[in-house]
UniProtKB/TrEMBL annotation:
Keywords: Membrane, Transmembrane, Transmembrane helix. It comes from the Bacteria. This is DUF948 domain-containing protein. The chain crosses the membrane at residues 6-27.
Length: 124
């Protein structure tokens, strides 16, 4: 064996050791990719029913919001009707009640003024 053959054997041995040392991280990286593929498959399998359930929930919530919208519309109409009724009652009964109250106050004041003795009345 010559010096070139020995150098070639040494270089081949060093290359084999280098390949062996690089094979370990590559194998570990392959396992990481396998785990990543499994995790993605699990997330995909669990996400599909979840999206279906969310779609159903959103649809049900939308229907309930339509119902609530109808209810609030009816309540708004009812409150407008009550406001109109209140205004009507105030206009119809308010003015006569004020007149009756003023008349009764005047009558009470007149009777209260007659009951006091003549000397104690205030002169105006």
């Amino acid at each position: 064996m010559s010096g070139g053959d020995i150098a070639g054997l040494i270089a081949a041995g060093v290359f084999a050791v280098l390949v062996a040392l690089l094979a370990v991280p590559v194998l570990k990286l392959g396992r990481v990719f396998d785990e990543l593929r499994t995790a993605i498959r699990t997330v995909t399998d669990e996400t599909t029913p979840l999206i279906t359930e969310v779609t159903s929930t959103v649809s049900t919530t939308h229907q309930q919001l339509k119902n609530v919208d109808g209810i609030t519309s009816n309540v708004s109409d009812a409150s407008a009707n009550l406001s109109a009724l209140s205004s009507l009652v105030a206009a119809t009964l308010g003015a006569p009640l004020i007149k009756v109250a003023a008349f009764s106050y005047g009558v009470r004041t007149a009777f209260a003024g007659r009951k006091t003795p003549a000397g104690r009345r205030r002169s105006r």
